[in-house]
Amino acid sequence: MSADLSYLIILLTGVVILLENRLKRVVILLGIQGFLLLLPLYQEESGDGFHSIFLAAMVIVFKGILTPIILFWTARRIHSPESTFPKVGYLPTLALLFAGAAACYFFMDIVSAFFGKSHQYGLLYVLLLIYIGVIGFIVRRNWIGVIACFSIFENGTFLLTLLLKSGVPIGSEFGSFLDAVLIIGAGAALRINSEQYKGEISR
């Protein structure tokens, strides 16, 4: 499997997460996307060496396991409704997606001029994945969906770093993984406290 195809598959999971209206499936797909990050990681890092093993372990633990567990646990604690729909509807959401795709394609040559033509389409797919995360902040009405889109955004930035081979130190990479999970956990705690406070007020 080519690296660009791996990026495309991850992008498509992001599109499905954005448009999916069942929160349980959103969280499951987010976990699947986390594990799919192992594909480009193996292809870009050649799958050998301590650095590759470390990154793979972080992806599995933080993106494939911890994030879905936190979201499932939070959804049960706050009795979140199972169904959710975009604030602006599906057609405007799709219009935003197509607009982003057109913009990314238009600027792809400019970006490639700076970073080279290696994985040109992979870069396009990663930029679109980040864009999907941004769209999710705007159109998602349910808290779980918003956090899922934050995770998509974070996955996109991880892939962008991987694609551009920026050589971030291991400590910084571990910190970025940990920060993302801590943000999700803190958001979950705040949401639970908010729901409990509303319950106490309504009594």
TrEMBL record:
It is found in: Cell membrane. The keyword Mitochondrion does not apply. This is Formate hydrogenase. GO terms for cellular component: plasma membrane. The chain crosses the membrane at residues 6-21, 26-43, 49-73, 94-115, 121-139, 146-168, 174-193. InterPro entries: HyfE-like. Keywords: Cell membrane, Membrane, Transmembrane, Transmembrane helix. It comes from the Bacteria. It is a multi-pass membrane protein. It comes from Leptospira dzoumogneensis. PANTHER family: HYDROGENASE-4 COMPONENT E. The keyword Transmembrane applies.
